[in-house]
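Usage

Read records sequentially. Each one opens with the input sequence:
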Amino acid sequence: MRPRSVVDYALARRATLADLHAGRVSTTDVCDAHPYLLRAAKYHGETTARRCPVCRGREPLTNVTYTYGDELGVSSGRVRATRDLPSLAQQFSELRVYVVEVCTSCAWNHLIMSFVIGTGRPRVKRTTRRKTAEE
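and closes with the structure output:
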């Protein structure tokens, strides 16, 4: 699996934390994870070795990985395990992947990376032939 169009949001993360430490924003502004994101982190997230930069709590940060793509249909936007990404990359032509870090203690969350995976080949359009009343 070779990710394409990789975007690292480390500078945006650093700027947000600098604003927090300088007092330009409050912790309630940056620790605002949606309840669904917190639930996804709790039950489907992957624990990291990093500590929360806001609360420095005992709980390590959790990464939540979302996949989006037209070919996924109704399962677009679903949380996926990192180990599932290589098989998805072989099955589909293009999927956008977003990785969000979440602190389940204080609700800090930040998009840390996005990238594209997939075969890169055009999708095979499956056409279904409709039967008319005369057939």
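Summary fields computed downstream for this record:
- The helical segments are 10-22, 27-30, 35-44, 85-91.
- The longest helix spans residues 10-22.
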